[in-house]
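Need the bound structure for adenosine-5'-triphosphate, inputs here:
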Amino acid sequence: MAIRVLLAEDDPGQRRVMEYLLTEEGYSVAPVASGEEALKAFREETPDLVLTDMSMPGMDGLELLSELKRLAPHVPVIIITAFGTIRTAVEAMRGGAFEYVAKPVNNDELKLVVAKALEHKALEEENARLRLEVKGKYRFANIVGASSPMKHLFDVMTRVAASEATALILGESGTGKELVARALHVGSARRDAPFIALNCAAIPENLIEAELFGARKGAFTGATRDRKGRFELASGGSIFLDEVSELPIDLQVKLLRVLDEREVTPVGAEKPVPLDARVLAATNRFLDAAVAEGDFREDLYYRLNVVSIVVPPLRKRADDIPLLVEHFLENFGSPDCSVDPAVWDILERHPWPGNVRQLENVIERALVLQKEPGRLTVADLPPEIRSPQNRPAPRAGDFPQEGVDLEEVEKDLIQAALAKTGGNQTQAARMLGISRYALIYRMQKHDLR
Ligand SMILES: Nc1ncnc2c1ncn2[C@@H]1O[C@H](COP(=O)(O)OP(=O)(O)OP(=O)(O)O)[C@@H](O)[C@H]1O
Ligand SMILES: [Mg+2]
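Answer from helper R.:
Posting the output first, comments after.
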C-alpha cells in the first residue's frame, strides 16, 4: 500500500509542483488548499505524513499543527516556511513539527526530509510494537522469550514449578539457568520462603560441607558458634546448587544421602536435622559425560535429574533477540532508545557464544558509549560483533608437518557447523560467515546432505 502524504498549500502553482514531485517518489498525495480542508481530510483518513505551508488564509500551519498533534501525535508534520521567518520555524519545532523546510523549496531537500520523517515514524512504530510485546505475553516471571524453544521451556517450567520434584537445569553459560531456578521457586508454593543459591565452584573445597550442611560450635578451628548451613537456611523454600558438576566427589556422596533421607547432619553434630527445602541444581557441563569420565556419581546424577530442564542457547532462538534487547534497554534505563535496522540485522546474525549474558553486556556497553543519545547505531557495537571478519579466527594449532588437506578441513568445518545447528543451513552459514547459497554449493561439492 502506498504511503499517504497530506499536502496543504494555498498557492495552486506550488501545490502542483510539490504534488508532482512527491507522486514521482511513489507517494500517494492528497493535495488540499487550506488548513481547514487539511483537518477535514485528516479526520477522514489518517495519512502517514503531513506537509503544510505555514502561512495560509484562515487556519495557518501552526494552528493546523497543534490540532494534528492533538489528534494523532505520532504522524510527522513538516512545515514549509517563507524565507526569513525563522521565528515561526522555531515555534513550529516547539509545537512538535518533525522538521521545517524554507521556501523556495529545494526538491532534493524536500524528498530527503520526507523520507527521513517516514523512516523515523517506522522506527517509532516498530519500537512501540516490540515494547508492547515485551510487556505482554512473552515472559515467564522475568524471563523474556517468544521463540518456540522458549515457549516450550515455559510450558515445562509451568508444570515443574507446581511440583516438588528435584530439577536439574542444563544449558550453556549465560543462557539463563539461574533465572529459571528463581522462576521455578517464585512459581511454586514455596515462594514466600527463602531462595538460597550456592555456587559449588566458588567455595573452597574444605568449606563446602559446613556451608551446605552447617556446623556445630567447636567442630573445627574457627567454628566459634553454631552455624546454619544453606540447606537449613532454605527451610520451607528452595536451595539452588549452581555448577553442581564441580562438587567434590566426597561431598557428592553426602549430598546423595541428604536427598535420599531428607535430612542433613551439620559438621560436628550428633543428630541430623530434617530437610525441608526443594532442591534445584544447574550445570553447564554435560553431566552424562562427567559421569562417564568418573567425575560425577551416577546415582547422584539420577537423583538430581528427576526432571531436567534444558535452556536453549541463544543462537537457536534469534527470534528472541529483539525482545531481549528491548528488555535490556528498559532495564538499563533507556526504554525509549531507538535501534537502527542495521543493528538488528547484526544482532540477529551473531552466533552469541556467551548467550544472553553476552547480549546483555553488549547492550549495556553500547548505551555507555553511545555516540547519539537515544539511538543505537552500528558504531556503538563492539568490533567483534560489528563485523564477522574481526571475530578471532579459530587457531589452527600447530600446523602439521605433513600438511593438511584444505578441502577436508572445509568439509569438517561445514559438518561441525551443521551438527551444531541441528542441520539448520541458515544458522550454519552464519556461523561460517558465508551466505546460505555458498553453504549449499559447498555441501553439494562435498556430497553432504
Ligand atoms: N530469557 C531471558 N530474559 C531476560 N534476561 C535473561 C534471559 N536469559 C538470561 N538473562 C540474563 O542474562 C544473564 C545471565 O543469566 P544467568 O546468570 O541466569 O545465566 P546462567 O545460565 O546461570 O549462566 P552461567 O552458566 O554462566 O552461570 C543474567 O543477567 C540474566 O538476567
Ligand atoms: Mg549461573
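Comments: The first helix runs from residue 12 to 24. The chain has a mean pLDDT of 88.
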